[in-house]
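User: what does the whole thing look like in 3D?
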Amino acid sequence: MVERMPSIFDDHTARTFEREPDVATTQAGKRNGGVEHQGDQFAPYEDPTGGSLFPGERRPRIGLLFDDGPVALEDLDRVGDCSFAVDLNLDQIVASIVRGFDDQELLSALYYQSLHEIDAIHYRQEVFKDLEDGPLFDQIKRFSGLMRQVRARLAQLEKIDCRYQREGSFLSAVAVYCEAVLALVSDLRGSRVNSRALHAFKGFLEAYVASDYFCSLDSDTRECKEGLARIRYCVRIRGGRVDVSRYVGENDYSTEVLEAFSRFAQGAAKDYLVEYRGDPPANHVSVQILEFVARLFAEEFTALNDYSDKHAHFFDETVECFERETQFYLAYLDYIRPLRSAGLQFCYPQITKESKEVFATRTFDLALAKELLSRNVPVVPNGFHLEDPERIFVVSGPNQGGKTTFARTFGQLHHFASLGCPVPGRDARLFLFDQLFTHFEREEDLVRMRGKLEDDLVRVAKVLQSATTDSIVILNEIFSSTTLDDARFLGKKVLEKVAELDLLCVYVTFVDELASFGDSVVSMVSSVDPDDPTERTYEVVRAPADGLAYALAIAGKYGLTYDRLRERLSS
Amino acid sequence: MKPFLLYPDQSFDFDAELPLGHDSLVDDLELTVVFDAMAQRDQFLFEVSKKVLLTTVTDLGVIRYRQEVLADCVAEREIIKEIYAIALGALEDRRTLWTYSSKRPSSILAGALTQLEAAVVRLRELRRIADDHLDKFGSKGLRGLLCNLQDELNDEYFETIDYHLKNLRFRDGIPLSAELGPDNIGTNFVLRRVENAKSSWKGWLHRGKRSSYSFTIPPRDEAGDRALADLTSRGINQVANAAAQSAEHIISYFTSLRAELGFYLSCINLRDELTAKGQLVSFPEPCSWQPATLFTAGLRDVSLALLAKGPVVGNDVDARGKSLLIVTGANSGGKSTFLRSVGLAQLMMQCGMFVTAQTYRASVCDRVFTHFIREEDPSMNHGRLDEELSRMSAIVERITPHCLMLFNESFAATNEREGSEIGRQVVRALLDADIKVLFVTHQFDFAASFLNPRRESTLFLRAQRELDGQRRYQLVVADPLPTSSGKDLYYELGGWMGKDEHPRVPTSLVDSLEADRRSTKC
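Assistant: Here's the predicted 3D structure for the full assembly of 1093 residues, as C-alpha cells:
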C-alpha cells in the first residue's frame, strides 16, 4: 500500500500510513472497483484525534443513483443488443449527454440501464427534482468542476522537482478542495433537500465539516495561503543579469501610459496583449528566482513545508463517490437545459405498472430537437394518449411528416422515464416496461429486396416471441419493400399478435387500412401544410387515415391576413 | 476625444450593419444614382454616404445639428477639405509605417512608438487649423470639434506625450514586480516606473537583512535566454498593449474624423451637381410623428433630377393629418416618381441633408420601407404572388410603429379581387399599428374600398390626364376613378408596341418628361 501512494512527501508518507486505521480496505471489500480505484489515488483522511468520524458505526454508504450505495461499472448490465438504441437514436443522445464528462464508460452504461422498480425510479426523480428546484444544479456543477481541478492538480504533483513549487501546488489543490466542500455544505443547507439520497449525503457532509480534522485542514490551508499571497518581490532584468529583491511599491507604469493617451479612447480598442497561456512556466530561470524568493521570505516557506507534511492525506472517500455519481444527473440536466431555454418543456412522468393508459403532452424527439435547435429550426411538439382498450398507435400519412419521429419519441420517452430522468413533455404518464423492442426500416437495407423481407420477418417474429405483455414494441415501416397486398396481410398478422399480447405498440406504416384494425388501435396521422404540401408541419395527430384537405388562403400561409398581421405587428 | 460631427454627443457607428432589407430600399428608390453623385467615384465616400443615408435619424435636434454643420461646410469648403486631408494623411502614415508582429510585446511596443510619433505630428497640424480658423464657423458641431482640439491638445499635453515616448525605450533595464502564482512560480509581472527604480535600488542596500540576490544567465544558455525573454515580454506586455492601443485610439480619432467629414464632403458633391443642373435644393423641416405632417412644394425625385437633362416638374402635396395616401390614375402619370421622391426626401431629411424641393415639411419616421412590384422573380422558386407575399412577410418581420411604408402596385400579381382583398387586409393592419402608408395602385377595387367609409386621415391623389391625352406629371387631390387609364394609354401607344405597361423609371420616363416639358411650354 505504501508503494502505491504518491511519494510526494517522502518519509512522512510512510509514517502516516503505519498508524492509519484501515477504513478504506475494510469497506473496499464490499465496495465496487471504481471507488477502490479512486481510493488508491487519495487515501481517506485520517482523524488525527484517533477517533472515528462516526463512532460505533460504519461510514455510511451513500448512493446517489441506487439506495443501497455507490455503484460501479461491474454492477451494471452491459447492453448486448443495441439495435433499439440505434433505432431510437439513443446512441446519439447518450453520446452527446456524456460528452465532456470524466467517466464516460460508466455514465453511458448508466444511461442504457433501465430500472424495473418504481421506487428506484422515484429515488432518482427525487434527486433530479432537488437539483432542478432552485440553484442546487449550478452549485453541484460548480462543486464537481472544482473537484476535477483538485484531482488534476494532485495527479501532477509527482512530476514537480522543486520542493517550493510542489508544495505550492499541493496547497492550492487543498485550498480548492476545502472551498468546494464548504461551498457545497452551505449550498445544501440553503436548499430544500427532499430526496433521500441528498438528504443522507447532507447529513454526512455536515458531520464531516464539523469534524476537528476538517476544521484544522481548512484553517491551516488559509493561513499558509495568506502568508504566501502577501509576498511581493522585484525582478530587474538587464541583459542576462537578474536581480531579485523585496518590493517597495513603485507605480504601475502601463496605466500611466494608457492614461496619457486616454483622451483619444474611442470604444473598445483592439487588444494588443500577447496571450500568455496561464502563468509563466516553471523552468530553470523561474525556479532559480523562486529559490531566491524562498530565501528572502524564509518564514513563509518553512510554514508551507510543515503544512504539506501534516495534511498529506486529506481527500475524503464519501465526498469522492458523491461527486462521481452526480455526473449522471449533471450530464442529463446539462443536455436538456438548452432545450428548455428554447421553450421546450420537460416533466417528471408518472410511472405505472398497472395501467397502460399512457399519455404525454407537448413531447418531442430529444435527438431531433437538439439538432433542430442547432440550426435554429423550431421544434414541433406532439402529444399522444391511450384509453383502454387502446394499446396500439398506427401511424400513417404523408412521408417526411414526422411519423418516424413520433415512433422514436414514444420509445425515448419510455426509456428515459425508466432511468428516472425528466422527459420531454408538459406532463406524462408512462408505463414501466420490462423490455423495449424496436425494428426500424433502414435505407441501406433496400438493396436486397428479397433477403430483406425474409430478414424483416425473422426479426419481427423474434421480437413478438420474446415480448411479454409488459413489453413495448416499436415497428417502423417494416414490409415497406414488399407489395401492398403483402404488407397489408403481414401487418394484420403483426397487429393480431400484438393485440393478443395486449402490449403497448407503435406501428408506423403506409398501409392505411391497418389504422382501422380494431378497438385496440388508435389512428395517428402525420400532417403537412395544407397550403404547400412540400412544407412539413411535423404534427402527428389523432385522425382517420385518409386524404388531407388543403384549403387555407394563400395570404394565411405568409401570415398576411389581417388577424395574423395584427398579432405579428403587436409583438 | 471624438469629432462628434454627426451627433452632438456620440460618434456615428460606421461598423454597424445596415438594417436588414436596405437593399430593396436602394433598388426601389434608385439610391445608387444618389450615392454615385455624392461619392464622385470615391469608393470610401460611396460607403460613407450609403451608411449615413440609410441610417435614419429620428431626433429632430440631431437633424438640425447636421443641417447646421452642412451649411458651415458649404460655406467654408476649403478649410473642411484641409482637415479632411490631414485625417487622410494620418491614416496613410499608419498604412505605410508599420505592421505589428503580434507575437512579441517588444516588437509591438517598438511599432506603437513609431506610430505615435507620426500621429503626434498630424495632431499638431490639426491644432494649428483650430487656432487659425475657429472664428469662421457658427455650427455647434464644427465649433465643438475645433474647440475640443484646442482644449485637449494644449502645449502641456504635447510635452507629456513626448516624455513618455522617450521613456518607453528603457535604457536602464526593465524593473518588474511579481508575486507568487499557484505553484509558487512567479506571476503577475508588472512594469514599474523606470525613474523611481534607481533610487529604490540604492535604498535596498541599506537594509539590515540581505534583500537582494542576483544571478546571470550563462552565455549560450539559449533556454535561459528564452525564459528571461518570456518574463520580460510578460512584464512589458501591458505597456506595449497600452502604447499600441493608444496609437490605435489616435488613429480611430482620425478614422472617425475622416468618415464623418466625408459625409459632408459627399453632400457638397451632390449639391454641386444638382445646382449645376439648375436644381433648387433647400433644407427640409423635420416634424414630430404626431401630428402627421407631409407638406411639400415643388418636390422632385433626386435621382430623376440627376439623370434628367432639363428641369423636372415637381409636385405640391398637402397631406397634413393624413396617415394613408392612395395614389391612383394614369399609367406613366408620375405616380411612381412621386412615391420615390417622397421616399428619397424622407431619407435625405432624416440624415440631415437638403432635399430637392422648395418646401418639404414632414414628420420623421423610424424607418422607410418599400414594397415595389418586381418585373420578374430571378430565383423562379416562387410564383409572382408568392414572391410578393414573402417579401411583404419579411417586411412585417421588421416594421414597427412610426414607420413609413411605400407600396408601388403591390399585390397585383393575381386577379384584382384577390389582390385587393390582400392589400386591404395588409394596409388596415399597418394603419392600426400606427404605420403611415403611401400606396400607388391602379386597382380601383382596392382604392375604392377606402372611400367607404371615408376617413379624415386618408388622402386620395390622382395622376392627371389632360383631355387632349397629354400627361402631366403632377398629382391632384382626387378620388380614384373606376376606369383605369391603361386602356387609353394602350391605344395612345398604338397597340402592342412591345413596351412595358409599367415603364421603368428613369429611362423611358425621362424621355416622356422631355416631351411633357415641351408641351407645357407651348
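In plain terms: Residues 196-208, 376-382, 484-522 of chain B have pLDDT under 50 and may be disordered. Chain B touches chain A through 98 residues (CB under 8 Å).
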